[in-house]
Amino acid sequence: MNIAITGGGGFLGRRLAKALLENGRVERLVVADVAPMRPVADDSRLVLAQGDLSSGDMAASIADGADVIFHLAAVVSGRAEAEFDAGMSGNLDTTRRLLEAARAGGRRPRFVFASSLAVFGPPLPEVVTDETAVHPQSSYGAQKAMGELLVSDYSRRGFVDGRALRLPTVCVRPGSPNAAASSFVSGIIREPLKGKRALCPVGRDMELWLSSPGAAVANLIHGALLPADALGRCRVVNLPGTTVSIAEMIAALERVAGPQASALVEFGDDPAVLRIVSGWPARFDVERALSLGFRRDGGFEAFIREYLADEAAGAGVTQR
Amino acid sequence: MNIAITGGGGFLGRRLAKALLENGRVERLVVADVAPMRPVADDSRLVLAQGDLSSGDMAASIADGADVIFHLAAVVSGRAEAEFDAGMSGNLDTTRRLLEAARAGGRRPRFVFASSLAVFGPPLPEVVTDETAVHPQSSYGAQKAMGELLVSDYSRRGFVDGRALRLPTVCVRPGSPNAAASSFVSGIIREPLKGKRALCPVGRDMELWLSSPGAAVANLIHGALLPADALGRCRVVNLPGTTVSIAEMIAALERVAGPQASALVEFGDDPAVLRIVSGWPARFDVERALSLGFRRDGGFEAFIREYLADEAAGAGVTQR
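Predict the joint structure of the above. Result:
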């Protein structure tokens, strides 16, 4: 099986690459990213491809011969809001260009599109399902929703065999804060564990819909392996997540790392973040995803322990 | 008020132009179309602009100085299904280009986007509302759904003041059959009224969601005049329609024009049409649209009488 990952130098991409290389059926793994990368493993099947997907050549070379394409590359939510044109190009045009390259290849590859809960926004029902209408309140969410429509129509037409998987906010992300509006969600856990202060721009009562990195990667791979028939007419799936409030997150942090850690979380306003994040739903009915075999995390303490275990195991997976 | 209409040479565009010119507040009306046009009226405010919206210059000239843009130009459903690239270009790229031109103009014009019930498809609830998730089963529907997301996000960002109005199938269209999958819906009324046979590619029990041309034009204008506040966060509205079965349509035809007319409707298969049309919903809850002041038609006999009256009044409105 020949596999390609875009955004493969990012945090989830590296973990995904590592998990895929542990599978003996993978013959070739192209890990593509716009930024320079270090290889996740010393493995002859691994090919690093640095380049910009805004070029058709790069898209064609990624799609060339691929049986499965994981399209993770994106302009994150905060940047897509601050720089509209960069978001349209990096999120919408890039997805279309890659789908076109896959179509031109004529192999009808599996195309796993990393979508996001950011497609949703008010007015929201109490519980979001796969039948809830999208109302993106950020350009990132709008661009992801358009990507889902592209993936669905390219699949319906037989150009690719696509799956658009809406990821919850992934927590705990290692490394440094980034330009995602959700960056603080990992920051309020990761930074205090390093003895650093972290700013929480939303209130204690705010609930979030979270996935651990381990479950996110397992669900991306599961999504690639699912037969098309199982998905029926609908190529879009809300992945399982865990509903956790900020207060519960900080309480779990305190149980794991003590009050000196939880005391490092400071509350303050960030209207730009709040405007985006406050519209995201936190309660989902993911019965369909579970019946399709996608995996659900346990309680939030396990998220923190997964992060600590990963960090202890070595930073190779978690840094470029 | 300066107004522009794309697809202004088409059937709805011409009626819309005529209705707008009856309004004294209109100072300038640019009617744009890719095909040559005859003017709908001898009116110094009317400017005909023939050209292809795939050129940025054409988009810029349409947006230039416009207070209101009605974007009706589209590649119809049957053609967008048969020619995927033409549909992507004519429906998605053109809409984006026009939105960009409006954004560049910096005047934040009202932007009325003619969307369609074709954004919907199975799985469908019993009754479709503005909160029903879209599942396009045609490329036309997917392209319209992406256009809605563009209009919504460009509005949220303040680039335009947009409204995406989902039109029911408009019936009775005058003129000749076209490449829309719904072309037969008008054909089975119009052709028998001319003494010609018409093929119905769907069964008698099939229900459709219809608007008369008069209500469609009135609702496009109403949509342009609505204050943005009335729409709230959601720029997309399912316009009112009438649920009618094929059998009811033919019975109304018989009441208006006698059994010699209804006998001219023949039933036969057209899998390409059936595949697209059978997924369209016919039952909507349009409480929101009605509360916003959009207009609803009466029974189907009135649709036929409107067509006959329009034809009697002269073909000037109904032909290019």
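The CA atoms of residues 14 and 180 of chain A lie 18 Å apart.
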